[in-house]
Amino acid sequence: MFKSLREKLKSWIKKPHEEAGLEEPVKTPNKKPPVKILKKKKEKAKKEEEKKEEEFKEAEKTEIQEIAESELSKTEKAVSRFNWFKKKLTQEKFDELFEELQLILLQNNTAYEVVEQLRHSLEQKLIGKNFSETNLQESLKQSIEEILQNPPDIIKEIKSTLSAKSPFVAIFVGINGSGKTTTIAKIANLLLKKGFSVCLAAADTFRAASIEQLQKHADNLKVPLIKKDYGSDPASVGFDAIAYAKKHHIDVVLIDTAGRMQNQESLMNEVEKIVRVNKPDMTLFVGESITGNDAVEQARKFAEKIPISGIILSKADVDEKGGTALSVSYITKKPILFIGS
User: Model's pTM, two decimal places?
Assistant: First the structure.
């Protein structure tokens, strides 16, 4: 009885593979990889690691070698440079070095005479000396300073003159449009701030509106202006201004003059007369920085005609070269007192 029951139960509970008409799958046991395969993998990984390490060492070695070669090259260059500096500067080498400097100086409005003077000065300082014993830049600076004239202290000069006589008289000369009238107003303003009393003289009786221009400056500064009609003798205007200053105990008289080109003989004779009649304590040439070698020639001609005390260079704010100042001072052998805009 129990046997038949068991058979029925077997028929009711069938396995999935039997229902699908499939044979019972064969179970594959979980087997570990053989020891030989594991050993080969470890050996392969080790070889790859050793290869990478070898490549790293090779790269490191190459980098160290490159650094060493680079440092060696620097050392060789330093030794070579040191040996070069131990050499003496010959005339031939100096001429080679100065050629470039000469071109720069000429391009920057430096007169040829000044360039030659600098060459001579530098030759004396440098030729025959070791490069290690010379400083080219410092030598050039010294040579330039030797050319420039040391300017006097104009305030001290005025005080010194006033202790002996009064007033102190200054005449301003120069070519047309150089900025004499504006410069006079600036100097007057400076002197007023230093405690001096000032009067102006409009001795430019030639240029249209010159008297009106100076009158405007005088009004702004609140100082007297001595003037006459256009066409009047400019020397007499200065003379009257000096007499006015003496009478009213004014310290300084600043005399404006008409602009004139250095090649205008009659006008140059006129400025000579103004100086001769008024006997100034200071005659100042006003030139434009931007005119370059023209300013040098102008200053030379004025200095030949009248005794120049000093130079004022106007429009220096737009002069990028600077050679004019060096050249004018050398040619006239006079100091540059002021640089103006």
Answer: 0.69
